[in-house]
């Protein structure tokens, strides 16, 4: 992690805490609300808040060529493709299995950064740390039963979400360096909201929607915390961190989920889980901490 002041580790920790909780909240929000509708409403609310903040800050929305590419990348790859796949997949697979699949993102990001944008080196230390952390995630969430055939589509959707997120991260790192994060997120989330709600109108039946206090609060939390706060922090860090190191937050999400289960739901943590958590933290440390800092 680059030394750009104390805000960097603080934002990193904030993102891990918020997004580590969203897997469970998405599940709650899907009860009574179809996936594309839920995701679309989430980003519609989040974009409205962001535009209000843009007006309050007096920010001018001006996009050059690179800015347009970054906004389209966020809107199409992240807020539409990736989240459509995540929401849809969680109808068929557990959040734990989704976490296993999502831990491939740092490896995909490292490969894209090395061979597509050529913006990062692919050291043995970095790859080794990623693989160790991925192994820890597998120990944490490896399914205890065989995967049913109906889950295969959900797994494929989760993998497509990983690919979309990784390509977007590397693309924004390349093209969005000079773009205001409020503008990028507001415009990107607007694109996502419009497309997701259009998909909902075409593919989903709204006659079966059953609103409840739980799924409404879930959408509000996902919009304000999971979208506005987390993505402003995330894309601020894109400007000052290597894409691969930043993507390692996906390996920490499961740890947050486990700890939240322990604190909120009073779940016990078996030895294998502690071992998996230790592997994840060790792997992330190896990949993210500069070699000189460990001497």
List keywords for this structure.
mainly alpha, 0% strand, 75% helix, globular, 295 residues
How would you describe this protein?
With 295 residues, the chain is mainly α. The protein has one domain (7-294). Helices cover 75% and strands 0% of the residues. It has twelve helices and no strands. It has helices at 7-29, 35-57, 65-89, 95-102, 105-115, 124-141, 151-175, 181-203, 213-238, 243-247, 249-264, 271-288. Helix 3 (65-89) packs antiparallel against helix 7 (151-175). The chain is globular and about 50 Å long.
What sequence of helices (H) and strands (E) makes up the elements?
Answer: HHHHHHHHHHHH
From the N-terminal CA to the C-terminal CA, the straight-line distance is 16 Å
Shape: globular
Which secondary-structure class do the elements indicate? mainly alpha
Summarize the main sheet: none
Helix content: over 70%
Query: Unreliable runs, pLDDT <50, ≥5 residues?
Result: none
How many helices in DSSP terms? 12
Overall mean pLDDT score? Answer: 84
Write the layout of secondary structure elements.
Blueprint: H1 7-29, H2 35-57, H3 65-89, H4 95-102, H5 105-115, H6 124-141, H7 151-175, H8 181-203, H9 213-238, H10 243-247, H11 249-264, H12 271-288
In short:
By secondary structure, the chain is mainly α. Helix content is 75%, strand content 0%. It has twelve helices and no strands.
């Amino acid at each position: 992690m680059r030394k750009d002041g104390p805000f960097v580790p603080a934002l990193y920790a904030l993102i891990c805490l918020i997004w580590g909780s969203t897997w469970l909240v998405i599940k709650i929000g899907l009860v009574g609300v179809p996936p594309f509708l839920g995701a679309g409403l989430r980003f519609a609310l989040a974009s409205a808040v962001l535009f209000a903040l843009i007006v309050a800050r007096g920010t001018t929305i001006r996009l050059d060529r690179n800015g347009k590419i970054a906004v389209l990348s966020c809107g199409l790859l992240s807020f539409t493709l990736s989240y459509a796949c995540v929401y849809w997949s969680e109808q068929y697979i557990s959040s734990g299995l989704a976490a296993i699949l999502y831990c491939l993102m740092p490896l995909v990001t490292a490969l894209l950064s090395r061979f597509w944008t050529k913006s990062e080196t692919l050291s043995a230390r970095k790859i080794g740390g990623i693989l160790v952390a991925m192994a820890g995630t597998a120990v944490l969430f490896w399914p205890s039963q065989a995967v049913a055939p109906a889950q295969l589509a959900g797994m494929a959707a989760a993998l497509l979400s990983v690919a979309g997120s990784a390509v977007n991260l590397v693309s924004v790192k390349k093209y969005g360096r000079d773009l205001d994060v409020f503008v990028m997120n507001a415009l990107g989330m607007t694109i996502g909201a419009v497309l997701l709600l259009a998909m909902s109108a075409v593919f989903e039946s709204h006659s079966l929607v059953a609103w409840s206090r739980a799924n409404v609060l879930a959408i509000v939390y996902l919009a304000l915390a999971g979208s506005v706060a987390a993505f402003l922090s995330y894309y601020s860090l894109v400007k000052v961190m290597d894409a691969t190191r930043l993507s390692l937050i996906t390996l920490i999400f499961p740890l947050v989920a486990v700890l939240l289960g322990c604190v909120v739901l009073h779940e016990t943590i078996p030895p294998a889980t502690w071992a998996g958590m230790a592997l994840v933290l060790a792997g992330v440390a190896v990949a993210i901490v500069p070699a000189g800092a460990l001497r």
